[in-house]
Amino acid sequence: MKNIIKKLLIIFLLFQFPSSYAQFLNEYWQNFSHRKTNYSDVTPEPREDFSLLITVIKPGYRFYINDEPSSSRISLDVYGRFEHVHDFRYKTKFHDNVYNNHYKYGFGVRLRIQKEDLINHWIKYLHIDLFAETQKMETWNNDVEYWFDFIEQQNNRFGLNAWLNSNYGNPFGQETYLDLSYHSTNFSDPGHDPYLILTLSPKLYYNISRTKKHFFDLYINEELVKDFMQKGSWNRNPFSNNLKTILGIRAIFPLNENFNLEKDHIFYNTSFLIFSEYSAISYLDDKSDWPWQTELANHDFRFGFMIWWPLGEAKYTPLIQNRF
Question: Which of the following CATH numbers is that of domain 2-316: 2.60.120, 1.10.3470, 2.40.128, 2.40.10?
Answer without folding.
Answer: 2.40.128
